[in-house]
Amino acid sequence: MITLEAYFDYYNEYMLTAEETFELITTDSVLVIEGIFFKENVDTNNIYFRLLAQLLHFEKDPKTNKDVIIYLNYIIGYYVGLFLHPASGDALGIHYLKKAISLESSEDKIKLYETIIDMILEIL
Questions:
Q1: CA distance 76 to 30
Q2: By percentage, how much of the chain surpasses pLDDT 70?
Q3: 35: Cβ contacts below 8 Å, ≥ 6 apart
Q4: Cβ atoms of 70 and 100 closer than 8 Å
Q5: Integer distance in angstroms from the first to the last C-alpha of the chain?
Q6: Among 31, 39, 13, 20, which Cα is nearest to 80's?
Q7: What are the counts of helices (DSSP H) followed by strands (DSSP E) for the chain?
Q8: 64, burial (CB in 10 Å: exposed 0-12, middle 13-18, buried 19+)
Q9: 97 and 76 in contact (C-beta within 8 Å)?
Q10: What is the crossing angle of helices 45-58 and 27-39, to 10°?
């Protein structure tokens, strides 16, 4: 399996499988790579764009990839809304989390996503 650092490398074009995504991309791992990027003076916005590209890859087949699409919307919403803070990051984060909610069937996960939205709104 590709390493976290190799996956987020600027020149990497490899797209993860759904299984690799669940294993490699977590709320903790995106913060780890953000710390590495910060120390190496690499633009942390690249994390968002890499995750977005991965999401778009899976959205080509939404029926097969529903669970990983939900998961990536959650990860992107969490990261952009609470940590990256780009212009309009709150709106972007909430958008991705609402997309995850609209596709999710687990009440526990929906509550988690709603809690993160509340956290984003508190930061405002």
A1: 9
A2: 99
A3: none
A4: yes
A5: 39
A6: 31
A7: 7, 0
A8: exposed
A9: no
A10: 140
Nearest by Cα to 70 from 60, 62, 79: 62
pLDDT at 95: 98
Angle between helix axes 45-58 and 66-79 (nearest 10 degrees) is: 160
pLDDT of 124 higher than 80: no
50, two tokens: 């890499």
The dihedral through the CA atoms of 42, 9, 75, 51 has a sign that is positive
- Judge contact between 36 and 46, C-beta under 8 A: no
Q: Give tens-digit pLDDT for 1-52.
A: 899 999 999 999 999 999 999 999 999 999 999 999 999 999 999 999 999 9
Burial class (CB in 10 A: 0-12, 13-18, 19+), 100: buried
